[in-house]
Structures are given as C-alpha cells and as structure tokens.
Amino acid sequence: MNFAQRKLDENHFGLSEIKGKVIEYLAAQQKANKPLSQVICLVGPPGVGKTSLATSIAEATGRKFVSISLGGARDVAEINGHRRTYIGAMPGKIIQAMKKAQVINPLFLIDEIDKISSYDHRGDPVYALLEVLDPSQNKKFVDNYLGEEVPYNLSEVMFLCTANTLDLPLPLLDRMEIIRLSSYTEMEKFRIAKEYLLPENLKKYNLNSGEIVFEDQAIRDIIKYYTREAGVRELNRKIQIIVRKFIVRLLQNLENKTVVTPDNLKDYLKKRIHEFTPKQKNPKVGVVNGLAWTGKFSCRKG
C-alpha cells in the first residue's frame, strides 16, 4: 500500500480524497486475495487527470495498462465482435485489447464511456457493456468472432471507466463505483504547473532548468489571463508554446537563456485572452457579478 500511495503522490498533485478511495479499493482487494470485480468510474471535466490517474493506478498495482475509447461507438459489434460470416469480420474491442495486453489481469480503461451513441438498428453498445462489467457474467464473455463455444474469462480484469458526466443508463451505472474529480483551483494549477508541467516539458525538450526560467507571477498570469478551463491541458499547451519559441531563438544563437516574466509574457503569447474586471460594489438592475455553469450529473433512462 505504501508503494501505491507513493506512486499516486509522485504523479498527481492534490486529489487526496480521490487517492484515498483508490487506496481503500486496492487495500480491500489485497486483503480479499481474489478479484473483487468492482468497476471504478472516474467522472469529471476534461483535463483534470482521469486518464493519467488510470495509468498511475496500473503502475501502482503492477498491472499492464490497456485502453479503448468508446466515444461515438454505435455498433454493438464494436463490443461483441462480428460473426465470421461477415466480410471483414474481426473481434470486438474488448478481445482486441486483451490480445494486446497478453495477460489475463490487466487494468482495462474504457475511456469516454458517456459518449457512446444511443440505440440504432445495429444494437446498443451500452447494453453490450453490461455483460463485460457484470462480475456474474464476465467469467464467460462471448465474442461473436470467437463463437459461443470459446467463452473468454474477464473476471481477473480490473475495469476502470472515465466520463465527463453521468449520462448513462441506470443498469450500467449500477455496476460502477463513482469517483468524482472536481475542477482545479488557481492555486492547485500553479502548483501543478511548477512541480509537474514545467519539469516534464524541460525533460521533453532536453533543456536545463537554468536555460529557461518561469517566474511565479508569470505562471499565475498564464493561468489567469490565457487559460480558462477546469483542468490543466490548455495551461500545458501555453507552456509548450513558450518553450518552443525559446528553442527557436536558442538554435538561432539569439539567446542562450531567458527568464519568463509578467512583462515579457505577451512576447510569447501575444495579447491577453481573458480579462478580469472588478466586481460591482452596488447592485444594478440587469447586471450580474458572475455566472457559472456545471455539467449535469443526471442519468439517462435505461
């Protein structure tokens, strides 16, 4: 458990509640000494680290990591495979991923599970997942390409799903344990940028820490004036833009080191995208001080 906790802390800042739930699940599975067949679903806005958290869990548990994306899936054969009588028949995504893993107990990530298309004449892939995620049924999962006489055992697999909202049928939702990831605060984004994103980009572009330095206020200004998001994906893009522009000047022998400050930030990212105005001290008719939107957590009828 200490190893798993250390791996989660190394790869992710904050998320203490999320990490606690993951550690509880791993501890319970270790004590049970057998697969618990529980399915974790990470729900949160884009860019908050759902997929990277899944890879960290795989690393912490010593399992191989495989993933499939079901965004826009419309055909039930993408889950259950095609029958061999069809031209171009192939196994479903589940069996293809298990072949890639080459083990019977990987961590299997089903990404964007809430983006599956609804029912049409080719069946509903959402309900095909019921057999995959149900511990009472997935011991003998049937892929049409393999045939009913060759059932596949999925009971050793640790399934993990990601979604932006809980717009899922209730039977499928009932098979999953929901863990919600909330948006990052400005302070959390600053810490993530300084402790994770900057070192990763310096390593990625083979730069030394002394060649390009970001002042703390410059990082805060990027967060405040150039990004407006729940996660840190756009923040990472802005950092990469600055680093790449410095590399161009470095290779042209125009400069061998630079310090990114609030004053020269516009030289890299142009004018500010977002502006903040002071809040009205006195209320006025027809004027609001703020407006917020949050994703719905309702469930689709199933």
Write the layout of secondary structure elements.
Blueprint: H1 2-11, H2 16-32, E1 39-43, H3 50-61, E2 65-69, H4 77-80, H5 93-101, E3 107-111, H6 125-133, E4 158-163, H7 170-173, E5 176-180, H8 186-204, E6 212-214, H9 216-225, H10 233-251, E7 258-260, H11 265-269
Parallel strand pairs: 1-4, 1-5, 2-3, 3-4, 6-7
Kindly describe this structure.
This protein has 302 residues and is an alpha/beta fold. It is built from 11 helices and 7 strands. The strands form 2 sheets. A 5-stranded parallel sheet has the order 2-3-4-1-5, sandwiched between helices. Strands 6-7 form a two-stranded parallel sheet. Helix 6 (125-133) links the parallel strand 3 and strand 4 (158-163). Helix 1 (2-11) packs antiparallel against helix 3 (50-61), helix 8 crosses helix 9 and helix 8 runs parallel beside helix 10 (233-251). The longest helix has 19 residues, at 186-204. The two termini are 38 Å apart.
Short description:
The chain is of the alpha/beta class and 302 residues long. The protein has helices at residues 2-11, 16-32, 50-61, 77-80, 93-101, 125-133, 170-173, 186-204, 216-225, 233-251, 265-269, and strands spanning 39-43, 65-69, 107-111, 158-163, 176-180, 212-214, 258-260.
